[in-house]
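Q: Start with the shorter request: fold the first protein.
A: Done. Sequence, then structure:
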Amino acid sequence: MFATFLVGLREGLEATLIVSILVACLVKTDQRRYLPHVWGGVAVAVLLSIGAGAALQYGSTRLSFTGQERFEAITSVLAVAFVTWMIFWMRGAAKHIAGDLRDKLGEAIGMGPFAVVLIAFLAVIREGLETALILYSMVDYADDPAASLGAAGGGIAVAVAIGFGLYQGAIRVNLSKFFTWTGALLVLVAAGLLKYGVHDFQEAGDLPGLNDLAFDLSPVLAPGTWYAEILSGMFNLTPAPTVIETIAWAAYLVPVLVLFLMPRKQPAPVPAAATETTD
């Protein structure tokens, strides 16, 4: 539940920030007549995202056991790719996303109402489809899918509340630190999703070693105990993973976490003399 709450919070806040930037631009430039178009684009994106999640769930139930395991494995790997891309993209784009959106919105207003609807739709649909795919992959492995979905919904609700508070100026959040901490936690979530995906490939017979365990902590992490459920939910730690699962988990987690937490080099300032031109 914590992992799905985190995904809902992170993805929800990204989408909320984008929408709040669009709304603020329209309000500050006295273009309020375009607000219904923004909300219309947002509504269509949300509905399509929900539909995509339902289609994934329905489609998987129509497959054979082997096909379902393979389908779940592929969606898990895709979810890992989306999570990885998301956290690194936001890490680099957070500082200039507002300016980029303002420029695109200004161009859209010049093109007409449909363009405003389209920019709002495109800004939200990416987050929505990512969320649908990631949550499908995570909920599929949950002991209580309804509770996991509820936790994700709670994360989205909190994100909307935070976004509204930021828009009204009632809440101040260090977004750089927020996205760094949640990004690091999502790397752990993604590593667990990759491990589950590898296990599904093994279940489908596409990878060997299904019975070759790396270790067995079942006597310590007995299934069903509260501490085992917490570790499994937060860090996707299972008591008896296979060798290939463990290798995939470590091969993803260590380099990605190091690269994500590594301080970024700031570009060296250009000397003033170098920017001067001579006649």
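Q: Next, the second protein, separately.
A: Sequence, then structure:
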Amino acid sequence: MPRLVWRRAELVGGTAESAGARTLRFLVPGWPGHLAGQHVDVRLTAEDGYTAQRSYSLAAPADGDLVELTVEIVPDGEVSPYLTEEIQAGDQVEIRGPVGGWFVWRPASVTPVLLVGGGSGIVPLMAMIRARRQAGSPAPFRLLYSLRAPERGYYADELRRPDPGLDITYLYTRSVPEGLSRPAGRIMLDDLAEGGWPAASEPDCYVCGPTGFVEAAADLLLALGHAPERIRTERFGPTGG
């Protein structure tokens, strides 16, 4: 495996995803490419030489020297406030990666896929959805996306567009939109049984979100009979932002 190096990354575009999250597109000359589900390290360096770095999931499949991240602000953080509120087109940071080889989806696979995302855990799963679409893959996807409230969702417009072979189920934990019969609450066995694939279909399952959410969802998948080796998890917790 080649040694990972820090590369200069220039911001070339950005899009607000919610009140506290922003998608950033960087031009990274010499970028080696990546797989959907991998992540990168981002490093900021202050004028006095102080550095801070954090890891962020890649939000889109490989596209030449372009790297796309979606960052959610962490109050009092060192990196996320700059990336979500201050950085401007033309500004530079350093990026190192790609990192990770287990929590990835490869377009050559035709196995059914179940994506289970909690909050900003949707980011690497969205990279998989986009990679599937980009490759014209026949693999059927199902996404269960758990949110506190509708306005907290990422990629809302894109996920509303018809995408043959992708079925989406939204779960809300705090505020439920009008007309939805499921009450607000955490992910449950019935949610995965109804919105996911049966274990007999032998899907590849990808679960990403806060630690508690990931552990609960993985336990429910096991209870439904899914093979442990087909359940891949990626979790995040407080890092200082």
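Q: Describe the second briefly.
A: The two ends are 29 Å apart (CA to CA). Residues 171 and 191 are 8 Å apart (CA to CA).
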